[in-house]
Amino acid sequence: MSTDAHRRILCALDTTDTAQACDLARTLAPHVGGVKLGLEFFGANGPAGFRQVAGTGMPIFLDLKLHDIPNTVAKAIHALMPLAPSILTIHTAGGPAMMAAAAKAATEAAEAVGCPRPIIVGVTILTSLDESDLEAVGYQNKLADQVVKLARLAKDSGLDGVVCSPLEIELIKEACGRDFKLVVPGIRPAGSATGDQKRVMTPRQAIDKGADYLVIGRPITQAEDPAVAAQTIAKELGA
Ligand SMILES: O=c1ccn([C@@H]2O[C@H](COP(=O)(O)O)[C@@H](O)[C@H]2O)c(=O)[nH]1
Question: Per its record, what are the GO molecular function terms (predicted)?
Answer without folding.
Answer: orotidine-5'-phosphate decarboxylase activity
